[in-house]
């Protein structure tokens, strides 16, 4: 196992007593039961919908991919190797308040602390169906670049959001949403860790939480996102759009019209969905696997393997998908992870109670945007500027919805450049 001492707390950051070291270690009996469930789980035969003649996924996941992914999970995948990756970085848990009344939950987080007294605190927020696993390639790159913690220019914090991974779920007393998550994150950063004037980086759900933090929380000084769906400004002239923006809007239309049925289910019937997906690791693999395949830029992962039909696929991406699904399954958190969708999608014709446009991040706060072409809703710069004090904009040529996982080198460079811009202004 790699050493987890790199980035351990030192003189620049002293952790309070409510923060405890944490090691991921799933009980072997649970791993054995998962293997048994996988082996006993049948895959139905071929039909038109799961084996379209044109080789596409227009009607959902292809059966042959699931057959191979099931085999890989049963025969080749090692959860212990995933644990080793996670545990190679300092892990902690902390009891963090979820409201002003002081009710608390335990939050697990990766905490990598610089010995540089001028280090900038950065908190990374994942989305759905993501997790802290998304940030491991990025953190590994930074560990290689800054082996001496005294030179590391950041403190890196990556929590499992409430209801995800190794963190507790929210209490069952009421509906919780993104503003509540933002309260937890700000409490962790400022109240627990004492890290002020922090930067937040996120995509998917994490980008919306980032906007809430930038809008509401004094100690959040800047926001760097790679996903920012907002409506066009009033009277926007669509003839001014670039060809790249037009392709991005077409991608967004595809997502809304053909790729968002899962989200409406998560928004309107999360109880049913959670019960169903919590009954079978294979069902969960199909549900989450489809999202990764549809939302990831094909150029991010080499298509190096061949399925029986002759279709090419990426074994590396398949391994990442299985790891993500295994984390949701082994922590038993899929049913507690859907709460954000009630805010993100309109139901019964009603406008959603929360959206990015409702949380503009304006001066003196600063916003950076990293635009990826295969994002599910690529948004034109002019639209984002309407709701942001945009001081940093970067358009990438390759990358999709899981940018931190797909393009860690690009994210690392973007983060460093964004911090430089903040320090110059």
TrEMBL record:
Assigned keywords, A-Z: Hydrolase
Q: Does the keyword Flavoprotein apply?
A: no
Q: Does the keyword Mitochondrion apply?
A: no
Epoxide hydrolase N-terminal domain span: 20-135
Superkingdom of source:
Eukaryota
Q: Which SUPFAM superfamilies match?
A: alpha/beta-Hydrolases (SSF53474)
Q: InterPro entries given for it? A: AB_hydrolase_fold, Epox_hydrolase-like, Epoxide_hydro_N, Epoxide_hydrolase
Question: Family assignment?
Answer: Belongs to the peptidase S33 family.
- The protein's name in its UniProt record: Epoxide hydrolase N-terminal domain-containing protein
Source organism of the structure: Podospora pseudoanserina
């Amino acid at each position: 196992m790699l050493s987890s001492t790199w980035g351990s707390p030192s003189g620049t950051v002293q952790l309070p007593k409510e923060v405890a070291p944490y090691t991921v270690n799933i009980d072997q009996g649970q791993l054995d039961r998962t293997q048994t469930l996988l082996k006993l789980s049948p895959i139905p035969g071929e039909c038109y919908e799961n084996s379209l003649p044109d080789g596409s996924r227009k009607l959902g996941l292809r059966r042959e991919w699931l057959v191979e992914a099931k085999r890989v999970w049963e025969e080749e995948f090692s959860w212990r190797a995933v644990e080793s990756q996670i545990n190679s970085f300092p892990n902690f848990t902390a009891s963090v308040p979820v409201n002003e009344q002081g009710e608390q939950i335990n939050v697990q987080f990766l905490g990598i602390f610089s010995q540089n007294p001028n280090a900038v605190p950065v908190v990374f927020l994942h989305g759905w169906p993501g997790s802290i696993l998304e940030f491991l390639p990025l953190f590994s790159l930074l560990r290689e670049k800054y082996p001496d913690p005294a030179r590391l220019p950041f403190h890196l914090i990556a929590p499992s959001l409430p209801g995800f991974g190794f963190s507790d779920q929210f209490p069952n007393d009421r509906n919780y949403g993104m503003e509540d998550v933002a309260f937890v994150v700000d409490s962790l950063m400022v109240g627990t860790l004492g890290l002020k004037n922090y930067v937040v980086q996120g995509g998917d759900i994490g980008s919306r939480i980032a906007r809430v933090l930038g809008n509401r929380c004094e100690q959040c000084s800047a926001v760097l996102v790679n996903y920012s769906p907002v409506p066009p400004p009033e009277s926007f002239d669509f003839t001014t759009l670039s060809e790249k923006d037009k392709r991005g809007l077409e991608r967004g239309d595809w997502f809304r019209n053909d790729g968002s049925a899962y989200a409406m289910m998560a928004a309107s019937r999360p109880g049913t969905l959670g019960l169903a997906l919590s009954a079978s690791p294979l069902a969960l693999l199909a549900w989450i696997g489809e999202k990764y395949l549809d939302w990831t830029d094909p150029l991010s992962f080499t298509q190096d393997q061949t399925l029986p039909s002759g279709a090419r696929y990426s074994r590396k991406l398949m391994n990442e998908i299985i790891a993500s699904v295994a984390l949701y399954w082994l922590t038993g958190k899929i049913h507690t992870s859907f709460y954000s969708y009630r805010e993100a999608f309109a139901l019964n014709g009603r406008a959603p109670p929360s959206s990015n446009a409702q949380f503009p991040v304006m001066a003196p706060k600063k916003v950076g945007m990293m635009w990826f072409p295969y994002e599910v809703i690529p948004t034109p710069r002019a639209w984002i500027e309407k709701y942001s004090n945009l001081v940093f904009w970067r358009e990438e040529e390759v990358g999709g919805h899981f940018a931190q996982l797909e393009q860690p080198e690009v994210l690392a460079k973007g983060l460093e450049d964004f911090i430089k811009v903040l320090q110059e202004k």
